[in-house]
Amino acid sequence: MLTHYSKPSILVIDDDLDTLTLLRTLLSNGGFAVSTASCWSEITDRLNMAVNSRRAYDAIILDLMMPERSGFDVLNSLKIIMNNKVPPVIILSARYSTQDMVKASEMGATKYLVKPTKPDKLLETVHEVIKQHKM
After folding, report:
1. Which is deepest, 69, 70, 128, 130, by most CB within 10 Å?
2. Domain spans of the chain, in order of start
3. Ramachandran region of residue 31, left (φ > 0), alpha (ψ -120 to 50) or beta?
4. Which residue, 62, 54, 122, 121, is CA-closest to 90?
5. What SS3 string covers the chain?
6. CA separation for the pair 21, 26 (Å, rounded)
7. pLDDT at site 122
8. At what angle do helices 40-53 and 71-81 cross, to 10 degrees?
9. CB 112 within 8 A of CB 105
10. Which fold has domain 9-134?
């Protein structure tokens, strides 16, 4: 975890660059330090940097529909890459089936939001999962 002197750190994973820009702006304006990744190599780079620097992300926002590996594949890989120290994961996806929601929950996702999500709802959810994780 980051110290209480710094902004909470969020990793946003989505293959859509417009979505990444929008989320970076929203979250930065909401008081978060934001890193982004749009492909598998960027995801592993960001996660390895966090592990190696011992500066864990406070939360991860993850899209399910990714080109190289699905969000489910990424979710499955987090425990390995992050040495079982996975921060809360918020799924933010256009996929809204009950089956996907149940699967994400069973795989360890903390919350599941469906795109499009209102900005206030996303910020509220991020604050909520970080607060719950620190308890």
Report:
1. 130
2. 9-134
3. left
4. 62
5. CCCCCCCCEEEEECCCHHHHHHHHHHHHHCCCEEEEECCHHHHHHHHHHHHHHCCCCCEEEECCCCCCCCHHHHHHHHHHHCCCCCCCEEEEECCCCHHHHHHHHHCCCCEEEECCCCHHHHHHHHHHHHHHHHC
6. 9
7. 97
8. 20
9. yes
10. Rossmann fold (3.40.50)
pLDDT of 82: 84
Which residue is listed with tokens 């909520």? 128
| Closest to 3 in 3D by CA, of 49, 46, 55, 52 | 55
pLDDT tens, residue by residue, 56-91 = 899 999 999 998 899 999 999 988 888 778 899 999
User: What is the token pair recorded at 38?
Assistant: 């749009």
Tokens 């899209």 label which residue? 63
